[in-house]
Amino acid sequence: MDQKTKLKIEEIIRVNHAGELGAQDIYNNQIRFCKSEKLKKKLMKISSEEKVHFDFFNEEILKRRVRPTIMSPVWKLAGVAIGAVTTRLGSDYVNACTEAVEEVIVNHYKEQIKYLEKNKIDRNLKSKIVEFCKDEEKHKVNAHLSLEKERVGVKVFKRLTKGFTRVAIEISKKL
């Protein structure tokens, strides 16, 4: 594997590790502040799936000696804030957050899959990303179907959340 490819693989692992850590922070704080048992149960299921994703990338970070993003403390604070605020705003905002983040993540994972396929490298990493992408798609669809009413505020929130997620991805790739 040449140096350019090695750096790209490290970038993929770093950014995915950061994203799955962020997902854990958001979902765990939504669970923490959630008053609805039904919603809490749903969030716990999603969080347990995201934990599997995080554990894989955390192991890859250690095994391949990839430097994690230096932004982790910032993303942790953001995860706490997003989790707490969306829960306070209600289930539509919790679902809008999930839908928005997962939509961006699904597209992000698809780009990585395309890169790995095109370059015929790291089949194991590719197969895990394919598996996780399917989980994220399922989370996105379920969240969308759970939205009771997509008011203007929810639409604006989704747009902001998608933008924030894209920025976090780009920063975490490099830093």
Q: What gross morphology would you assign? A: elongated
Radius of gyration: 16 Å
Biggest beta sheet summary: none
Question: What is the helix content?
Answer: over 70%
Number of domains: 1
- What's the number of extended β-strand segments? 0
CATH homologous superfamily assignment: Ferritin, core subunit, four-helix bundle
Strand-residue proportion: under 5%
Overall structural class, as computed from helix and strand content, comes to mainly alpha
Mean pLDDT: 91
Tell me which CATH architecture applies here.
Up-down Bundle
- CA-CA gap between termini: 23 Å
| Level-1 CATH class name | Mainly Alpha
CATH topology value: Ferritin
Order of helices and strands: HHHHHH
What's the tally of helices?
6
Low-confidence stretches: none
Description of the molecule:
The protein is an all-alpha fold. It has a single domain, classed as Ferritin, core subunit, four-helix bundle (Ferritin, Up-down Bundle). Helix 1 packs parallel to helix 3 and helix 4 packs parallel to helix 6. The mean pLDDT is 91.
Which structural traits does this protein have?
6 helices, 175 residues, Ferritin, mainly alpha, 87% helix, single chain
Topology record:
Blueprint: H1 3-33, H2 37-64, H3 72-89, H4 91-118, H5 123-146, H6 152-174
In short:
With 175 residues, the protein is mainly alpha-helical.
